[in-house]
Amino acid sequence: MTVVAAGLGTVPYTLTRIGLLMEPEAGNPLEVEGVLNPASGTGPDGEVYILPRMVAAGNISRIGLARVIVEDGVPVGVERQGVVLEPDRSWERGVGNAGVEDPRITWMPDLGLHVMTYVAYGPLGPRTALAVSADLRDWRRLGPVLFTYDDDLDIDLNLFHNKDAVFFAEPVTAPDGARCFAVLHRPMWDLSETKADQGIILPAGIDDHRNSIWISYVPVEAVEKDLASLTLWSRHRFLAGPMFPFEVTKIGGGPAPMRVPEGWLLLHHGVTGHIERAFAHQQNVHYAAGAMLLDAEDPSIVIARSPEPLLEAETDDERGGIVPNVVFPTAVEQIDGVRYVFYGMADSKIGVARLDHT
């Protein structure tokens, strides 16, 4: 249905569930704890691929590659083609933990590269990192993300865990007028997750501790001189926080924002329920997919939001798994003129839904 947020405009898009796309392969030790939350891209061969998070025993995650099998224009399954990223750097593993998790990929034409953000589960917990590839198979790490200091925020964003990061495909104009690559991310303000008893610390001007979506920028000129500049994010500002009942606990970004006639379409996830420790397998939450529209010229401006979910956990695959009751959109691709969204099902499997303009 078409939905209208109070004081905002219309979000004229819907999601229609197609079904299961990928589930753990029997006997595959790399997938014994699930396949979930994929990135995606179109390869040089014109084929659509997903890059799923593959979880081995002990919650050790790798990023795989699988060609999407299409029948009559609809994604129906996958053909596995191996592993493309493993936690083999010192900062991607710690004592008793390791992982490269939850990739998001943006094809950036100006760079001629797929840019992957992913979560490195290292010695101090999760940290956002970047890698780039021309073909989705061979990835070059650019390293962990660093946030420049902004005294007006009275905070060092490098102290906080941060997830759900994803780049926009095209340069935009930052609020200060600079031509930049924009990136979304989700800081987590509870420092007790890193050091005991530190508690919640908020940036100046922010009075809501719930996890929300922020936007930062990387000057195009800097990236043209040195691709590694993609890891240095600046001009940080709050974009959107929980607003409606289906996202009352927290929100976070989804696939790379899509350029649409109305501006930028951002699919996001909204969460309700009670969260235990942030990085435990949650059992008392519900994740659903929502949407918002961002201004075409200045994506730091939200022009529309959906007050109800576009897709929520209803099937057995979405309601039962490692983390039950989860619909978590992370990737979108166009196949025969139709956009399809790939999403995590209960942190265990991968589903697909059709995205339509109403």
Write the layout of secondary structure elements.
Layout (H helix, E strand, L loop, with lengths): L2 E2 L5 E2 L1 E10 L12 E8 L5 E9 L3 E12 L2 E12 L7 E2 L2 E2 L1 E9 L4 E10 L2 E9 L6 E5 L1 E2 L14 E6 L4 E2 L5 E9 L25 E7 H6 L6 E9 L9 E4 L4 E3 L2 E11 L11 E10 L7 E4 L5 E2 L3 H4 L7 E9 L2 E8 L3 E9 L1
Description of the molecule:
The structure is a single chain. The chain has 358 residues and is mainly β. The chain is 3% helix and 52% strand. The protein has two helices and 28 strands. The chain has helices spanning 220-225, 316-319, and strands at 3-4, 10-11, 13-22, 35-42, 48-56, 60-71, 74-85, 93-94, 97-98, 100-108, 113-122, 125-133, 140-144, 146-147, 162-167, 172-173, 179-187, 213-219, 232-240, 250-253, 258-260, 263-273, 285-294, 302-305, 311-312, 327-335, 338-345, 349-357. The strands form seven sheets. Strands 14, 15, 16, 17, 18 and 19 form a six-stranded mixed beta sheet that branches. Strands 20, 21, 22, 23, 24 and 25 form a six-stranded antiparallel beta sheet that branches. A hairpin with a 2-residue loop joins strand 11 and strand 12. The longest helix is centred in the middle third of the chain and has 6 residues, at 220-225. The protein is globular, with a radius of gyration of 19 Å.
